[in-house]
Write a structure and sequence with these properties.
Helix 7 packs across helix 8. Helix 8 links the parallel strand 8 and strand 9. The protein has 11 helices and 12 strands. By secondary structure, it is an alpha/beta fold. The protein has 2 domains: about 170 residues, Response regulator (Rossmann fold); about 140 residues, Rossmann fold (3-Layer(aba) Sandwich), CATH 3.40.50.2300. The structure holds beta-D-fucofuranose. The site of beta-D-fucofuranose (GYE) has 11 residues, from helix 2 and strand 9.
Length: about 325
């Protein structure tokens, strides 16, 4: 009972401040005070790949200069644990939440509870189902890339650079139910659907993980030995696929074109080594953007629903120039 009363009081005060500052502006989002230090929640979903580690490090590295007392957790690949981590951060009285939702649907209750508790929430790097939870209403904004466009750009690069007559494509999907897996598939598949000579013969999840990518590729190679294009939704699975292909005696870069997304150090090295064709960037360095967006919000600015990150493209033309800044 007591906790509930407190929560309701906090929300009511929140609305009051927003109205006073004139920031209610159609949004009944919880406001954020301007102050020197903020208690900030960053519930990471997992730490099993270089992308996640680079993202977490970017938040840690930004904390001091942005005045964050950072509470960071690691849900070890479990959406349920990530929800529990958000609940615990709310209970600890965070001022602001930067949430990378592992999957589109299971994190929605956590977003709703953060709002009800008066905690402004920014989704970072992944989003939630837009039919249920909306930027500007349930959370402040989504900070991240255009995943449909990333998939489309990989497809277009593949069409320009594939030199066979007919493409037999295996697609390694990211985490089932995650926004980048849904959208990277859509972007790529829609372009390929317009080309009769390019067929996606199998599409299976490798959970954005190198080892699972390798295992899935091993299995799919048995069913589809004629594969000549592998599209992985991230670099870790692409590297796993390269390992599986090589184990099976194939020559990635010669008889199979491997294409993916992220821009990790290992992927740039694979491009330099001629084993991979392209990776469209998806940057993990969200700390500075999170800081800047949070400060704009605290000043009372209305934040655009989607703070879009623009992505470069890495191929053999420029991979060597960027490998030193890669992660
Ligand atoms: O591509 C992948 C990571 O959500 C954009 O998640 C991110 C993706 C990234 O695990 O490597």
């Amino acid at each position: 009972m007591r906790a509930k009363t407190l929560l309701m009081a906090a929300t009511a005060v929140g609305f009051g401040i927003a109205a006073l500052a004139g920031t209610a502006s159609a949004q009944d989002l919880p406001p954020l005070e301007m102050k020197d230090r903020y208690k900030v929640g960053f519930p990471q979903m997992e730490s099993n790949n270089p992308w996640r580690i680079a993202e977490s490090k970017s938040f840690v590295d930004t904390a001091d200069s942005c005045g964050w007392d950072l509470i960071a957790t690691d849900a070890a690949g479990s959406a349920a644990k990530q929800v529990a981590d958000v609940d615990s951060m709310i209970a600890q009285g965070i001022d602001v939440l930067f949430l990378p939702p592992r999957e589109e649907k299971p994190l929605i209750p956590a977003v709703m509870r953060a709002k009800a508790a008066g905690v402004p929430t920014f989704l970072v790097d992944r989003s939630v189902d837009p039919n249920v939870a909306k930027a500007g209403e349930h959370y402040v904004a989504f900070l991240g890339s255009d995943f449909i466009d990333q998939g489309r750009r990989v497809a277009e690069w593949t069409l320009e650079n594939f030199d066979g007559e007919t493409g037999t494509i295996v697609e390694l999907e990211g985490t089932t139910g995650s926004s980048p897996a849904n959208d990277r598939r859509k972007g790529f598949d829609d372009v390929m659907a317009e080309h009769d000579n390019m067929t996606i013969v199998a599409s299976q999840t490798g959970d954005f993980a190198r080892d699972l990518g390798r295992q899935v590729m091993e299995t799919l190679l048995q069913a589809h030995p004629d594969v000549n294009v592998v599209y992985a939704h991230n670099d870790e699975m692409a590297i796993g696929a390269i390992q599986a292909l090589e184990l099976a005696g194939r020559k990635p870069g010669e008889d199979v074109l491997v294409v993916s997304i992220d821009g990790t150090r290992d992927a740039l090295q694979a491009i330099i080594d001629g084993k991979m064709g392209v990776t469209v960037e998806s940057s993990p360095f969200f700390g500075p953007l999170a800081c800047e967006t949070m400060k704009r919000y605290a000043k009372g600015e209305t934040i655009e629903p989607w703070v879009k990150v623009s992505d470069r493209i890495f191929t053999k033309e420029n991979a060597a120039d960027h490998i030193d800044e890669a992660y």
